[in-house]
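Service request form, structural biology core

Requester: graduate student, group of Dr. S.
Request type: structure prediction, single chain
Budget code: on file
Notes: please return the result as structure tokens.

Sequence provided:
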Amino acid sequence: QVQFVESGGGLVQAGGSLSLSCAASGFTFSSSAMSWYRRAPGKERELVAVIGSGGSTNYFDSVKGRFTISRDNSKNTVYLQMNSLKPEDTAVYYCNAFTNYGKNYWGQGTQVTVSS
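Core staff response, request fulfilled:
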């Protein structure tokens, strides 16, 4: 059974930082690409950052230089360090796994709210 435990969301002032974590189980974490997505009110879900099984990373343009995705395969956990937060970063953030056998799994989401 695939499970995710997401944590680290909350309320922060603009310019502040938050760190999200997503602990996963039930699939081969080390062989999976892990991503963070977000959905802001009234908007489509968008990809924020992805880290491949080999550690390569890619970021949505608006978060480059501010957010850092990382993974710890020994803990089956993916992280998102978010610095210099802006009100437009306010969204529900979702952890996603894309496995090497083509399955897509989603976390339950964690709310991030950035006040101006």
